[in-house]
């Protein structure tokens, strides 16, 4: 193992060991910014406030035409890093703190080669509502042409990604003793009926992106087994393959008047740039990214080490070999885009 790899793995673990569950990103942003400042190769390293205690990190060398970007927040629960001979483990190690570390070391590699006019953008809030990306979009530097977004894609360039539609449901009822259900009105029954109607919808399909999918992610309700429930709620997540407007109308019709609803978040599907000579695999991902909220940051690409299939799980890991390789591959993407800027960006 080289000295550079030792430092890469140590920085990744340092990021992972700071709990940055969405909403608590302040400390990890400060750590990332301090690392970049200490490197001494950037003309600017800045913390961009999003909310109190939550900052995006932006670094630039010259006037950035190409920007490497990922997110620093994670899903719960937090658990610290560990490693063995082949992999690093911990919450966020592949989604996406290892990616942030690889991008940082790619930037150092490029700087050592004398490359300029690129930047880094590390965001908060991706796992919930892309608050960091929304805030960063109004601060895009003039002239930025391409955005390389980092998510775990198994080191393949992605050509398209599904969108997101998140829906919150709430049902109201009337509490009563469960021995006399006729005196109450079960909010849970209302919610279950509404959910069944939504599940029965025929969801859209796209030839490239595949099927729209639905996940009923949370259900909460009731007070005790012997009480008719007066409140119940659920959260739904659709993965979109097209315009969400028709689906929203169908969901509203299916819910009828039994439950209240709110469309909390909608992110459209995205078409992405790929480059000749780079592996794309199937070229499609179903998960959401910050890309739709970064429209002012240039033509988007999506690439990253690690697998989305272990992200958000207790077994989250990233292979050391793949993480180390990502440093060179991110640097290579920046070089390629700068060399072919007039064609692609």
Give a written overview of the molecule.
The protein is of the alpha+beta class. The protein has 2 domains: 3-161 and 270-344, Zn peptidases (Aminopeptidase); 163-267, 2-Layer Sandwich (Alpha-Beta Plaits), CATH 3.30.70. 30% of the residues lie in helices and 26% in strands. It contains 8 helices and 18 strands. It has helices spanning 3-16, 26-39, 93-112, 131-137, 187-199, 245-255, 320-339, 341-344, and strands at 44-51, 54-61, 66-71, 82-83, 87-89, 118-123, 146-149, 160-161, 163-172, 205-206, 210-211, 213-221, 231-240, 260-267, 270-271, 284-285, 299-302, 317-319. Strands 1-2-6-3-7-17 form a 6-stranded mixed β-sheet. Strands 12-13-9-14 form a 4-stranded antiparallel β-sheet. The protein has a 3-stranded antiparallel β-sheet with strand order 4-5-18. The chain is elongated. The mean pLDDT is 96.
Give me the secondary-structure topology.
Elements lengths: L2 H14 L9 H14 L4 E8 L2 E8 L4 E6 L10 E2 L3 E3 L3 H20 L5 E6 L7 H7 L8 E4 L10 E2 L1 E10 L14 H13 L5 E2 L3 E2 L1 E9 L9 E10 L4 H11 L4 E8 L2 E2 L12 E2 L13 E4 L14 E3 H20 L1 H4 L1
Parallel strand pairs: 3-6, 3-7, 7-17, 8-16
Antiparallel strand pairs: 1-2, 2-6, 4-5, 5-18, 8-15, 9-13, 9-14, 10-11, 12-13
Helix pairs in contact: 1-3, 3-7, 5-6
């Amino acid at each position: 193992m080289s000295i550079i790899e030792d430092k890469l793995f140590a920085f990744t673990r340092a990021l992972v060991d700071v709990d940055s569950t969405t909403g608590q990103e302040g400390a990890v942003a400060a750590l990332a910014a301090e690392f970049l400042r200490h490197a001494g190769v950037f003309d600017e390293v800045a913390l961009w406030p999003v909310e109190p205690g939550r900052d995006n990190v932006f670094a630039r060398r010259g006037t950035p035409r190409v920007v490497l970007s990922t997110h620093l927040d994670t899903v719960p629960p937090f658990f610290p890093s560990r490693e063995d001979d082949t992999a690093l483990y911990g919450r966020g190690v592949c989604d996406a703190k290892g990616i942030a570390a690889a991008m940082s070391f790619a930037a150092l590699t490029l700087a050592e080669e004398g490359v300029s006019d690129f930047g880094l953008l590390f965001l908060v809030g991706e796992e919930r509502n892309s608050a960091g990306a929304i805030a960063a979009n109004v601060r895009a530097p003039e002239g930025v042409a391409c955005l390389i977004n980092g998510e775990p894609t198994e080191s393949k360039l992605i050509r398209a990604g599904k969108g997101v539609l998140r829906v919150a449901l709430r049902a109201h009822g009337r509490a009563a003793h469960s021995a006399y259900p006729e005196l109450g009105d079960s909010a849970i029954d209302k919610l279950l009926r509404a959910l069944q109607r939504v599940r029965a919808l025929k969801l859209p399909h796209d030839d490239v992106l595949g099927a729209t999918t639905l996940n009923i992610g949370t259900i909460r309700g009731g007070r005790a087994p012997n009480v008719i429930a007066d409140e119940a709620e659920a959260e739904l997540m659709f993965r979109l393959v097209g315009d969400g407007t028709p689906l929203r109308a169908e969901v509203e019709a299916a819910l009828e008047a039994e439950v209240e609803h709110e469309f909390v978040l909608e992110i459209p599907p995205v078409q992405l740039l790929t480059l000749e000579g780079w592996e794309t695999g199937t070229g499609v991902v179903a998960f959401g990214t910050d890309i739709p909220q970064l429209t002012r940051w240039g033509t988007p690409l999506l690439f990253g080490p690690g697998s989305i299939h272990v992200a958000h799980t207790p077994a989250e890991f990233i292979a050391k070999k793949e993480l180390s390789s990502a440093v060179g591959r991110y640097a290579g993407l920046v070089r390629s885009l700068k060399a072919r800027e007039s064609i692609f960006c």
